[in-house]
Amino acid sequence: MSIKMKPSDPAFWMLFDGITTTPTVYNANCYICRDSEFAQMGLPLCYACLVCGGHVAADDGVCDNGHYQPTCPHDELEIRQVYRLEVSQELLDQCKEV
Ligand SMILES: [Zn+2]
Ligand SMILES: [Zn+2]
Question: How far is CA 73 from CA 50, 88, 89, 95, in A?
Fold first, then answer.
């Protein structure tokens, strides 16, 4: 269900600017993982779950195992605390600033 880019699309030039992102997690059932145009345009790609390392679709925010992903440092701190993951000083500093 991917929509092919037309030259009139404002984002069409992005296909040629040489920026590519590499998916860290691949799910063959996911249209973002399957469509190389997302990577060619340097768009956000699927990533590994903070909690279990599973596939999180770039437009979803929930991993294949149902873990919610943080959208800001506060979220991340909370999720890390809930799952007893390591909390870096950097993250704590970020939360103070925001
Ligand atoms: Zn994906
Ligand atoms: Zn997960």
Answer: 12, 11, 12, 6
